[in-house]
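Notes from the pairing session

We agreed to fold both candidates in a single pass and log them together. This is the raw record for the first candidate, unedited. Please don't reformat it; downstream parsing expects exactly this layout.

Candidate A
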Amino acid sequence: TLDDEGRVIYLGTLSKILSPGLRIGWVLGNHYVIDVLERAKQTADLHTPTLTQYIALESIRRGLVDKTIEKAKQVYKIKRDVMLDALADYMPEKTWWPRPVGGLFVMVFLPSLDVDTRKMLPEALARGVAYVPGASFFANGGGWNSMRLNFSFPPPDKIAEGIKILGSLAKEKIKEPEGPITPESFYTM
């Protein structure tokens, strides 16, 4: 890495990329940090079960990890594209969102600073739609008109249906679109 000072700790897990029940992972970092983590792990459960380690080893040897990642990328790309299309079809005019090239989320910015997605969340939940209010991701206290949407779990038809419901709710809340309001907007306020 570019880490010359030993400040970076890299964590990985097969439970996110191969199987949720496969509780095995890895950590890369400064040897002092690794020593502390190793002792903590041994205190918690002595060691990772041998069978789990063999399953992980054979999965890697047989190329299952790479195949699973490729399949997941295809599935998530379809779901992402369904969400992006639904956002374009159903969200209020001037709503802004970046097109994600990685991850499982779309950050959506409503075109009005009068709408606080934290306050809108209970109504969305009552209509069967969940999101994370965007203010949680802004250290400076901004982002109240934004929300983080996840496309990893729902099937494509439910994604489109959820965005339609969310778009309808957002249109009810927005009197006059001001936007587009992007993350940079909050640094000038």
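Candidate B (folded immediately after A)
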Amino acid sequence: MPEILIATLPSAGHAEPLRTVAADLVGRGNDVTVVTGAAHPGRQTEELRTALDERHHDAVIVDHGVTGISPLLGAGLPPVLCYLPAPVMPTSLRDIGALVDRLIVPTVPSFEYPHSDLPAGVRFVGVVRPRPPDGFVAPPWWGELDGTRPVVHVAQSSVDDRDLSQLVEPTLTALADSDVTVVVSTGGRDVGALGIPVPANAIVADHLPHDLLLPKVDVLVTDGDYTTVQLALAAGVPVVVAGRTGYRAEIAARVARSGAGINLQTGTPSPAEVAAAVHRIRSEAGFLRNARTMEAAFARRDGVAEIAALVDEVIGDRARPYVT
């Protein structure tokens, strides 16, 4: 039975996809150990070394945010697959791609810019779809999302959700008088933290399962969280992105390039900017057409199964004798 070590950051955006991968690997007969937690953030390398020393592992899957793996890369380590839920950038390819056996990119090639110099180990696998939520009970308003009125979903990621005035509040204000239903996910933040009254056409929840919600959505408004954008495009939902810093600006640029959404080119849009973007997406058929093209590209991939195949591949590669 192959033994796999998975290391991830504890935040949901990092941990949930790899929990899905772990459950799938267990179902395929692998023995999986997951290392995560925030108790000792400065001891990643030590904790990983301990986990690797305690028992034999045939392969390691590590989230790109677990930088503590870097000092351990090299001779004597099992094959390493790095999970990169972020835009492919020259820095990530240089710093990570050359050091690991496989660099797993959970999107489709058409979402990325063309790259002529990708390392041989880079693999696009499509989106890692979340597991069905355990014990999900649909809220009383769920039946309102029956297709009779357009649905706009606005979501701030778990990184930025502490300041709901960045995106959630401007979107609520922008669409308060529109003939749409606005569904807000605060990413775990207390709903009472909203600084404005909730409009009559809006529903606010602290957390909603995207795999169940997105098929009911017509437009997503997001701050550029990578996984959320991938899940939306995989569902054929056009996207409005308000992300101006770090990798979120890169995600926004890729959404605009795909034609499946609009880059607001700011992380703090005004209500007027949000309203104009949502209106454009609803009125110009090209956005939905391009989102459906992306949906078709994602439908041809199975991220979880492809990662399992890559694990088998690197284990097999390491087992083969070296031939000069």
